Amino acid sequence: MQVNATKAELETDGKLQRRQVPVEKLGEYVPVQRDPINLIKLTEAKMIPELLPLRHQRMAASRFAFFRGTAELMEQDLKQQYQSGISIIINGDAHLGNYGFYASPERKLLFDLNDFDESRIGNWESDLKRLLVSTYLVGLQNNFEPDRLQALLSSMCKVYRRGVKHAETLTLLQRFYFSYEIHDMIQTLNSLEDNDRAEMSRIVDRILKKSHKNNSETVIKKFTTLNSRGHLIFRENPPRARHVSDHTFRQIQAAYNSYRNYVREDIRVLLASYHLSDVIRYSVGVGSFGTRCFLLLLTGIDGSHLVLQMKEALPLRYNLLAMPVAESIKSSLNAGRRIVTAQKVLQSASDPFLGSTHFDGRGYYLRQFRDMKESIDATRLDFESLSVYAEICSFLLAMAHFQSPTAPRIAGYLRKQKQLDAGLANWAVQYSKQVDQDYQRFLAYLNQ
Question: How far, rounded to the nearest angstrom, does the alpha carbon of residue 350 sit from its chain's CA centroid?
């Protein structure tokens, strides 16, 4: 993305765009007409049939779980809504559960967006709307009052606008080096005078103590066993966890070798001291459960181990609903590179092992598995803690958006537009009703 305009010119562009699409339009909900079951089936046609029953079980657990597992529905629906027309690099699936803690290359614990499968060029408000809807669904699941939740959504929009304003005051390099380390988060929480929010601070403190124990050696203890020859291998747990065939192992070996050629030079040298000793297909998450996901066991020359996750990079759900299965699979060949690029742009710091590859006509990306990775279960938070957590996510979303060179247009578009807060909050509440309708239809479909 090369922008041949100054910051001031981009801000002016944003103001002019507001004349074409006033912020009031972004909060105007346009009812949608489509069959959610057919759209879900189109997405699942690219997945492993054996895993679909477990995927459906996870999606049926709650409205929020269903929302997480059906990004294709909102992707389709957003095309029918009023859009700002201001494009940046977006996450594409910025719901409340896609934020979490992870280790920086310097082994500091950071908090940020941590899933980028749906990342693309898109309208900035698409991310914010998905974050708002997810917060409202979690709040309802926690039995919080709808009026209080709608007020929280409005506050999240206000925080996003403040995040945009703050990002605009930073230089390009200051934004580039910005990170939200866990101690910054604790300091933010401690600065709040509301004692009811102390619970959130205690949760973060527990994560800090626990995260350093979450590494490859811990994964080894939990996921592996010794075979009859005394070699360390992954445990099987069908259908979720299965060893791959010899043919697939050779394909993954070749794909891994290709991946090594494109990672950072220091990582390439480090990996030269490891060899691939075992591979298992291991499904994770909700939305990606059913895709082709593998764990790679690497054994070092010193007997230590490293576990990498090799995850299928599906074509964008934003586009795949209109594609035949074979065509959509073909289009995913370079999807791993798209995801890796977006993650490196949107995250304040990324896993040094992050890289992409492909085999058997499908794209994949690799990263460390569970390296100091932790998350906050928003469904267990009290209202005050959920408020703090959601507002932090909203602020970080604005900071991530401002890594795009076109982002000053957002600042121009949003300047002195307080009415956006109530408008988008109302939109999210209205769309949550659509999610509920889709969820009920999904449950009925499962019970047929």
Answer: 13
Distance, C-alpha 257 to centroid of its chain: 27
Q: Which of 254, 224, 229 is nearest to 241 (CA)?
A: 224
Residues 19 and 153 in one domain: yes
Residue 362 near residue 333, CB atoms below 8 Å: yes
Nearest 10 degrees: CA dihedral of 63, 66, 68, 70?
Answer: -140
* Residue 217 dihedral angles phi and psi, to the nearest 5°: -65, -35
Phi, psi of 33 (to 5 degrees): -130, 110
CA distance linking residue 181 with residue 349, whole number of Å: 10
Choose among 60, 4, 13, 2: nearest CA to 408: 13
Measure the CA–CA gap between 6 and 13, rounded to whole angstroms. 11
Judgement on whether residues 201 and 330 belong to the same structural domain of the protein: no
- What pLDDT digit, counting tens, does each position of 140-180 carry? 999 999 999 999 999 999 999 999 999 999 999 988 888 77
Neighbours of 269 (CB within 10 A): 11
- The better pLDDT of the pair 194, 67 is held by 67
Report DSSP state, residue 47: S
Shared-domain flag, residues 400 and 324:
no
Omega before residue 49 within 30° of 0, cis? no
The letter for the amino acid at 213 is: K
In this structure, are residues 74 and 85 in contact, taking their beta carbons and an 8 Å threshold? no
> What is the model's pTM?
0.90
* Type of residue numbered 211: S
Pick from 308, 306, 335, 339: nearest CA to 320: 335
Cα dist. 42→6, 85, 292, 326, 396 in Å? 43, 28, 16, 12, 33
Whether 254 contacts 359, CB under 8 Å: yes
Q: Whole domain around residue 135: which residue ranges?
A: 7-30+61-211+377-446
Three-class SS state of 241:
strand
- Strand 274-282 to strand 241-243: parallel, antiparallel, or no bridges (unpaired)? antiparallel
Residue 374: what residue type?
E
Residue pLDDT, tens place only, 22-54: 999 999 999 999 999 999 998 888 889 999 999
- Measured CA to CA, the distance from residue 274 to residue 268 in angstroms comes to 10
Tally the domains of the chain: 2
Return the DSSP state at 303: S
From 320, 339, 368, give the residue that closes a domain: 368
Instruction: Give the span between the Cα atoms of 331 and 224, in whole angstroms.
Output: 35
Domain contains 1: no
